[in-house]
Records
---
Amino acid sequence: MSLIIRYPYKGIIKECFMGFINCHDIYDATATDDDTIEQVEGNPETFEPKLTGDILGEVVVNMLKSLTLNLKNCVGIGTDGCAVMVSIARGAVKKVQSHATNTLHCPCSNHALNLSISKSSNVQVIRNTIGIVTDVISFFNLSFKRNFVLKKVLNHKPHLKSLCETRWVERHDCIMIFKSSLSDIVESLSLISNWQEQISSSKAKILLLALCTCEFINGLQCLSSVLCVTSKISKLLQAEWQDVCQTKEIITDVINNLEEKRKNSIENFHELYIETKEIMLNLEVEEKLPRLIGRQTKRPNYPVSSVEEYYRVAVYISLVENILNYMKERFNNEKNQTFLFLSQLTPKNIIKTNNDDIVKVVDVIKKYYTFEDMDFIDLEEMNLKTEINLWKSKWIRIKDEGGHVNLDVITSAETCNEILYPTVKKLLFILACLPVSVASAERSFSTLRRLKTWLRSTMGQNRLSGLALLHVHRSISINIDKIIDKFSQMKKRNIDFII
């Protein structure tokens, strides 16, 4: 497990990699807890180590305590959406919250966006399109001969990328590159289909027939039109400096854009279909409807009058609606909306609020921030309203004087006077520190390919974590002389250690 600490430092937000944790270290020879050890039938002396949410949460708590961090200052936990993490009964987040009582769970926005895009596979044409793209890429990657032909035809154009499930941005890049190189891919498959090698030639012919269909080209065009909206957003959400307020604005823009696509689907798809017909003309693909009969139930069976109308209704609208509904379910649920209502405290939003909005902000603070240490935030309703109104008056005055009010959360917190606005300042710091994405943790796992090679496949936990820290924190300068002195004094050596 990878542990990342997110914190404010001199007006910026940092995400610091603390190391890899071996979660199985919690097991020892004296362990007898039935919740963590499951006896194997027929051999009571052996046991099966099971990593439940309680165990993972306890590992994180012990790690934070070993770093001498005050758990009461922990305000947010960022994880993916797997059950072992977010389970209400025995999830890791629930276990951490039992020790860090001021902590809120913040699901990873990148995972939520990625799952929303995955929802597009519910549309049969899109699911078939993604399957064909995956097969074509695998066909070229599994053979150097085939890959050589493709590279020669591409002629220094971007090479095909695999449809990776975990690397969020590569899913977008894969489809976009495949679409731009479709004519080159068809040419490569045509060349390979004439080979004497039976396996490659027959497989190339099958893939060629699958690519050169009206259904596949329309599915690829519709999918790429949606991924154009989410591609840049997926990259932006991985930035360390992103905060929940900026994320809310970004996701709102994406949802509004998709709603516009759905509302004006006739005009938008018509422009897209003009490009689709040009591609089909170049590839000599016939423009036709799929086979439709009255008793058909396993395929989209819409009463339409043209090919364009069929693919608009069966593919384009269905794709946009699926992704749009799932994004609203993930991002616009009641809990997220109530919590993100605290973004009203930022300068550009506070000047637009009225008395009812301020009352709602106070209610949200009292509901979600009933901390045990009451000195942390003043929860007196009158004091809160007065402080927020003073904060509002300040930024209205600054705006009237021509000042800049479009500040991000961390900058707003840094400029907030701690004496006049103590609660607002702390709440702004909390908003800045809440994790948006677990991209930093995913990046730390990417370093394992460079560290744990076949030459260093048996290294211990301390060495692996130490090398990862050196690799991730390359900007930290190290005194080499001190390292050499410490290494030479670690144990008695038979020969002098001299450089």
---
Amino acid sequence: MESESSSRLNRDTNSTPGAVLYNSVIIVVDLAFLLVKFWFRVFVELYYGLLGTEERNVANDIVLITGTGHGIGKELALQYSALGATIVGWDINEAMNAETIKQIKSKGGKAYGYTVDVTNREKVLETASKVLTEVGDVTILINNAGIMPQHEMLKHSEKEIRLVFEINTVAHCWMFQAFLPRMIEKNRGHIVALSSIAGIVGFKNLVPYCGSKFAVRGMMEALGEELRLYSDGKSKIKFTTVYPYMVDTGLCKRVKIRFENFLKLLKPSEVAASIVSAQRRGIVELTVPRYMFFLNSFLRNFPTTASALVRDFFDSGIESDM
């Protein structure tokens, strides 16, 4: 009875004209502060976006990269090493990974190679423990490993579909669980994830691949938000998601490009350079080339039938290999 009386009293109190007016004023004031802070952040980001932010020194960082045996992963390892960072290369292909590590060491760099299947959670956690003991705390984690089978949806086997998601998506979770705890403990670190243009735009012959790369974007955004809220905004761990266009790494087997000067096949070295720069500048999301993000965002404001006309005009993508 006392509880019911108390609840009734609170309702009656909150419904008085004075209380309604007070609550309304509080909401208006909060909204005004929100608008001031919102536009302040917009102008700050525009300012730094136009002038550019300084690339921070990574010479004292330990950079772990998955898929360092070839392509973008190898180029990332070479470029970070040239900046003085210590490289930890993970790849399932022992011979190719060893070649990357050897190349770095031949130039006087510090590099450690580990043979790891990133889909194996136990192996990931076990090797992460070895890295901590043998090298030290990983401060920059780059989830780069991926596969890209390319054919019509109904021609994908169950095994192939599962493997696409295990490597391109689920493996990121195992890497988070392996290295994020130490980053949180030290309140320092940067996680970079390789998504794809196919992670913001759907392409024919790449249905499972697109799904896996769209998922990477969602996981990175959610993880960043989770750390921001749980730390009350005090977390210094940064996140960067990268969406490259088609890259000449051997994954894109049958490329179709109508305007090669506008949508050319990218070189692994130039994509890696963009990734390194984005990480050092603290950019949250980056397409390579940069205009692709703005073009996609612009077209999303129009009916799909209209944006499809634009896509048909450019007529670029991946042909089926079956």
